[in-house]
Write a sequence for this structure.
């Protein structure tokens, strides 16, 4: 289990993380999503014991990253968003080097290398030079390196960054295999649908703050009552915008030409009632289009609302 306990990190006057608290259960895949600069890499660097917290703490299976860093490092495998490879080493030599760094015996290293290359689909590349691998293969090799000491917890910072669609699918399948092996996986991305495919839970980071966190299934179920609605009107678009914007079931109402778009919370009956109210109010509705929100839409709405609240508080 991983527990973030009111974690904050400052660089001078810049707050990279602000009072982040969450619990990640063992054996699950937890995804951090956020735009570049949201604080994902900072959170992972603290979890990996690479940088200290400014306040708060993280417990990894009960061990503090601040006071028991050595014990934490034995339990984790960290794959940064940018990692180095050694051009003059072959794939087998590369993994053997890292295995020796963890003080694994030669016999154990040989066995682990064979197992890991099979896991990451690189068995046939065992004797090729690292520099000759494709980007996707290098990413998988780095994942194998991360697993060389058999850690319980994996910290993967944007592991699919820069990969083509096929390589992304291969990486996703490998992560599912690792979950079946009982690994706890923390993964970050700025692409929410990418995480939704594999994660049990996600957390949305924005400007260093955790603004949403929860089970994927629960979030998707919650969204069934939220839809994007576009209403086309004839004349007096300003009055139509004001009408819809003031309804309690409506959020983020905007106007573009003769169309009023907004997020609507409610079922078909509530939708019909609102349409009836609009007509009774003299709004000439010519068309109505409804589209359920997906997780990408959620991310955009959540971060937009937070940004608007922050601007109002300045």
């Amino acid at each position: 289990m991983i527990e973030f306990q009111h974690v904050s990190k400052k660089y001078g006057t810049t707050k990279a993380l602000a009072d982040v608290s969450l619990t990640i259960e063992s054996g699950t895949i937890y995804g951090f999503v956020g735009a570049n600069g949201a604080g994902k890499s900072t959170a992972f660097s603290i979890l990996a014991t690479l940088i200290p917290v400014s306040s708060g703490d993280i417990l990894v299976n009960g061990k503090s990253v601040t006071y028991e860093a050595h014990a934490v490092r034995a339990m984790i495998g960290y794959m940064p968003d940018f990692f180095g490879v050694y051009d003059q080493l072959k794939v087998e030599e590369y993994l053997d080097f890292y295995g020796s760094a963890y003080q694994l015996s030669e016999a154990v290293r040989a066995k682990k290398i064979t197992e890991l290359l099979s896991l990451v689909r690189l068995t046939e590349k065992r004797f090729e030079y690292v520099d000759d691998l494709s980007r996707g293969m290098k990413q998988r090799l780095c994942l194998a390196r991360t697993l060389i000491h058999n850690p319980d917890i994996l910290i993967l910072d944007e592991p699919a960054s820069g990969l083509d669609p096929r390589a992304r699918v291969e990486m996703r399948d490998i992560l599912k295999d690792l979950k079946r092996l009982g690994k706890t996986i923390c993964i970050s991305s700025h692409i929410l649908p990418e995480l939704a495919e594999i994660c049990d839970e996600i957390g949305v980071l924005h400007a260093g703050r955790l603004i949403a966190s929860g089970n994927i299934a629960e979030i998707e179920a919650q969204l069934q009552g939220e839809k994007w609605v576009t209403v086309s009107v004839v004349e007096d678009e300003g009055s139509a915008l004001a009408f819809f914007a003031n309804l309690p079931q409506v959020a983020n109402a905007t106007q573009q030409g003769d169309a009023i778009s907004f997020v609507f919370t409610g079922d078909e009956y509530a939708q019909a009632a609102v349409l009836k109210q609009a007509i009774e109010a003299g709004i000439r509705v010519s068309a109505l289009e409804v589209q359920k929100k997906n997780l990408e839409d959620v991310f955009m709405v959540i971060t937009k609302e937070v940004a608007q609240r922050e601007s109002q508080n300045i």
